[in-house]
UniProtKB/TrEMBL annotation:
Species assigned in the record: Pedococcus cremeus
UniProt entry tagged with the keyword NADP: no
InterPro entries: ClpP/crotonase-like_dom_sf (IPR029045), Enoyl-CoA_hydra/iso (IPR001753), Enoyl-CoA_hydra_C (IPR014748)
Family affiliation: Belongs to the enoyl-CoA hydratase/isomerase family.
Catalysis: reaction(s): a (3S)-3-hydroxyacyl-CoA = a (2E)-enoyl-CoA + H2O; a 4-saturated-(3S)-3-hydroxyacyl-CoA = a (3E)-enoyl-CoA + H2O
Keywords of this entry: Lyase
GO biological process: fatty acid beta-oxidation
GO MF, one example: enoyl-CoA hydratase activity
Pfam families from the UniProt entry: ECH_1 (PF00378)
SUPFAM superfamilies on file: ClpP/crotonase
Superkingdom of this protein's organism: Bacteria
CDD domains the record matches: crotonase-like
Protein name in UniProt: Enoyl-CoA hydratase/carnithine racemase
Length: 278
């Protein structure tokens, strides 16, 4: 019989079309999330979408969470949304379609509500909404031969999943106009030069690079990391002066933490610090 009093944890909860693993690093947890629908190139099924929303809600409750790494099973990262329903509903009204699409976007972009760094380990092709999801994460590593793109207009679609915001934010307006207007597909290797991803590697090594980055995040001071993340997300500060004002406050907060004194002591003693998030 299931213990109804036992707390729900994200690493013990069952999911459909997703696999989830908890890893320990520096006394904190790293969530490793794998899209698990390889026969459909890990496209965003209804079950996967529901699983994703549930997982994000549980991750937000984990005070010991350090970082989240997302990857795909098989040869693809994520092929994006399933558009078969559009063909089956040719008479759908604009208002209804808008409501449906907005709910879909917001379901997947719940990843942006996490207060810890999110890292996309793009092991294979990421197209349309699949690549848009990777762009919504904080850091991206990609397989050198992965195909990445947002070819919405070639299907007759306007871009979705906040791509007209996230693509310029990640790679600049010139690259965004190029990819969004031409719909051209780039490789992971080319994506490094465009600023879309930080690193390209053989497909079998991508997850390892992402996990190593997550472990470095876990080893850093939690309060400083979360404040820094808030400073640089979503286009960063609106003005130079706002950056100064934020940093004066946020740095003062970290100066008042025990972790700051631990970091200074560890540097002086030439050892690794042990941070506690306070």
């Amino acid at each position: 019989m299931t213990d109804q009093s036992a707390p729900t944890t994200w690493w013990t909860t069952p999911y459909e079309d997703l696999r989830v693993e908890a890893r320990e690093a520096s006394g904190r947890r790293i969530a490793v999330v794998t899209f698990d629908l390889p026969e459909r190139r890990n496209s965003m099924s209804t079950a996967m979408t529901a699983s994703w929303v549930r997982l994000m809600g549980l991750l937000r409750q984990d005070a010991d969470l350090a970082a989240v790494v997302v990857t795909g099973e098989g040869s693809a990262f994520n092929a994006g949304g399933d558009l078969s329903w559009i063909v089956s509903e040719p008479d759908a009204q604009v208002a209804d379609l808008r409501t449906r699409m907005l709910a879909f976007y917001r379901s997947w972009l719940t990843v942006k509500q996490l207060e810890v760094p999110t890292i996309a380990a793009v092991n294979g092709h990421a197209i349309g909404a699949g690549f848009a999801l990777a762009l919504a994460m904080d850091v991206r590593y990609a397989a050198a031969d992965a195909k990445l793109g947002v070819p919405f207009t070639s299907l007759g679609l306007h871009p979705g999943m906040a791509t007209t915001w996230s693509l310029p934010d990640v790679a600049g307006h010139a690259v965004a106009r190029d990819l969004l207007l031409t719909g051209r597909i780039v490789t992971g290797q080319e994506a490094v030069g465009l600023g879309l991803v930080s690193l390209a590697a053989p497909a079998e090594e991508v997850l390892g690079h992402a996990l190593a980055a997550a472990e470095r995040v876990a080893a850093a001071a939690p309060v400083a990391t979360r404040l820094t993340l808030q400073a640089v997300r979503d286009g960063g500060h609106a003005t130079y002066e706002r950056a100064l004002e934020w940093e004066a406050l946020a740095q003062a907060v970290t100066l008042a933490t025990d972790d700051l004194h631990e970091g200074i002591a560890a540097a002086a003693e030439k050892r690794s610090p042990t941070f506690h998030g306070r």
